[in-house]
User: What shape does this take?
Amino acid sequence: MERRTGKYVRTWRGALGVVLAGGVLLTGCSGASGGKEHSSYDRRGAPAPAPAASGGAADSDGAKGTDGSKKEEDGLRESAPPDYLSTFALDVDTASYGYARRTLADGNLPEPATVRPEEFVNSFRQGYRRPAGNGFTVNVDGARTGADGWSLVRVGLATRAAPARDERPPVALTFVVDISGSMAEPGRLDLVKKSLGILTDELRDDDSISLVTFSDEAKTLLPMTRLRDHRGRIRDKVDSMEPTDSTNVEAGIRRGYDEAVDGRVKGANNRVVLLSDALANTGETDAAAILERIDSARREYGITLFGVGVGSDYGDALMEQLTNKGDGHTTYIADETQARKVFVDQLPAHLELTARDAKAQVAFDPETVEKFKLIGYEDRKVADEDFRNDRVDGGEVGPGHTVTALYAVHLRDGASGHVATATVRWLDPRTRAPHEQTGAVETEAIDGPLWDGDSKRLQVTAVAAYFAETLRGGRLPGAPGLGELASRADKLASGTEDDSVRKLATAIGQADRLKDGGDDNRSGGAPEGEMD
Assistant: This one.
């Protein structure tokens, strides 16, 4: 499939884009009133392509300012009108949240650049209804935040349930294991070995694995081998791995894909699984350049890359770029409990694909919505006009997955009626035929209070998003301070009987102590439309 340069196309519609910081919300989108003439919203309920930006050099009459008025001397370009569309590629990664928990447990706040709210949100069960067959269900709901005029709108996408162990197709997995010197730290190579041991016990006799190690060079320890009578041999190879030398991620991935292609099993799900701290220091260290070397294997054979990160010092950016652009996913493990969850509970959902190049587009109704902000997904944005351009890359999603997008939405005074229509578009993994599914939400469906409302899962989603945004230095409308957020998470853990929510409460409490106090709940004004 033809790809554009870079996985996602960012769109900058105004002269200035400022993220949420210090409680002030600004937008690069501006214009006159949010009437239909300024919107890409199709009144039939389907998203329509956004209008082209009109920014050009100032003419002889002077450029227009961001409020639509003429500016005689300031040289500002004319800004595009609000389009009321939000478009992004689907994301099922969870590594950002796992790494943040590890960092907080070590007594440090995570670097803001490593915090991706969508990965915090997608780390928790949502309880969405699922489709009976391939494809998605689209679930849209929300609640009032308590901040004046502000609501949260949750767009939830779900695939069919993951098949039982005995019902899935066989798998052929090529493990690419980092054995560089940095992997000697406790919780790195030793954890990888435990993880592979767990997986060897879980895989079926008709599954196959190969094993590649890399430090300064890459080596094949085990060619593609059927597990049937070889579990002991596989364990011996895993136990023989010892840390040494530097980290040449390029060599490991290239050798791994060679092995995956050479040992490809017809009728099986063929995957490359990278286990590493991703601290590349030898060979090619740029993700795009690394993936370019194995691009034909990815495209011709459809072999995707699943990244498993380890270590307190972890190359989050490189691993995310590799898996995003490698049509795959990434997660992070810090201990054996998490390893068991990933390799027993989660990995089956990453082995089979139900959707390729999946994208979502949410069309907000300008008659009811004044402004909105997608929380997270900055690295996954797609140009609105490319939503139905199937040459533009999206995300890969398997059975058992849910994807959640949370929006902060400010309704117009007295607004009533339609709020938004969400559409998901994906390609069939085998035929590449496109499919779409839609869902919509009305004002009455988001009119209830967030806290102590009927949906505990929506509250968990809000807590995770508020937590992530606070960690990266922002503030969302209605967000409590970390102390109150920890208390709400603790209460939700009891109400849901979900241990993962209890761990969320612990992480928020750790962050609160490290930050030594909270901020206020200010939320400033912003022009209409989408907020950057």
In short: The two ends are 30 Å apart (CA to CA).
